[in-house]
Amino acid sequence: MSKQTNTTRDHKLKYPDRLVILKRSPDGQPFWPIPDPLPPIIDARREYQSFGHDVFSLPGQHNIERGDLLIDNLSPYSMRASYWVYCSYGYLVEDVSVENASCIVVAKELGIYDGVKLPDRIYLANDFIKLHKPNPIDDLDAFVASLTTREICQPRPKFAIIKQSPDGYPFWPIPSSLPPKAEARLVWESMNYHLFCLFGQHNIVCNDLLIGRQSSYYLVKQVSIKENYCFVFVESADVVKLPDRIYLKNDFIQLHEPEPIDDLAEFVASLTIGDVFAGQWPPEHKHANIYIFRDEDVILYVGSSTNVYNRIRAHVGIREGGHFMLNTLVQDNLPGSRNWNIDLYMVNSTTFGDLMRYEMQIIKRLCPIINKHGNPCPIPLPMRYKWRWR
Known about the structure:
Elements: H1 3-14, E1 17-22, E2 31-33, E3 42-50, E4 53-59, E5 69-72, H2 76-80, H3 84-87, E6 89-99, E7 102-110, E8 115-118, E9 121-124, H4 125-132, H5 137-145, E10 158-162, E11 171-173, E12 182-190, E13 193-199, E14 209-211, E15 217-225, E16 229-236, E17 239-241, E18 245-248, H6 249-255, E19 266-272, H7 273-278, E20 290-295, E21 298-304, H8 308-315, H9 324-332, E22 341-346, H10 352-366
Antiparallel strand pairs: 1-3, 1-5, 2-9, 3-4, 4-7, 5-6, 6-7, 8-9, 10-12, 10-14, 11-18, 12-13, 13-16, 14-15, 15-16, 17-18, 19-22, 20-21, 20-22
């Protein structure tokens, strides 16, 4: 046996892992009651550790099974203290094997943010969130009480607080100058959920949006106001940021999903802007009199013409006379814009007036970005596009 092996073994024998076993609630609830008095402390040995899983050897016979919770580095004092969960390690038991006079236990190590300790019980963080949605204020205050003594040794984040549209629309207007950023402290986090302490008094309510550094966005789910600070429970948000407003991504998709136009026009063919530059046109294009520029589900422009061949070529800059703003959008986004689609449609129209009426009806349904006339709510251009006309 090598000197290193001896040293490791001696260290384990001299400084064992001091564990207590907590049993799950006997009525099937997803928490572990903290008994009084505390269960006996076991001097265990850690035999193996890898990728968040540990193997312990517990001397003697123990009532331990899958789903139990092992708590390490405990004393009766620290167990009762509000900060105990951050001074200790938790392990969720996944497998148990009895060997001679000891138990071999395989357990998953819990991160410091994965446990929620209330005065008489312990939750896994995600179970606590699921059980207490929509996070009633009484539960949030109890949750906060178990965490407030923890000191954070990392830089304090700062957030701008953005209020939702006063008209009830599901977006947040971006003011010309962002409000002063509030200094905060991260108190707790798990998965997409975070608890921040904002210093001072703030006008902040549920459904406000916090904007942090590096394009981080948090949707406020609940607020607990104190005398000189407030606790804010938030969820990380996927957003679509436009020049003047911010949408939640799912809201943006639902609001701007194009309505069908099958009852107004008959689909003829589709090509790309790259096909136009290469002169590769489908023969059916001669029957079309409506055309739609789009990039996947982003509707850019709707137009009509009795000669879509010449009109589209003008739009992309091959010949003169195209729509200047559409042409600059195509040019500013080359070479990627070569993959944008141009869908060709046909409406049964024999007069210029009828053709224009159909075009206006299609514009009203699709709300394209560039069309202004007859467009009640143009879709804002997503920030991923370059365009000198922003």
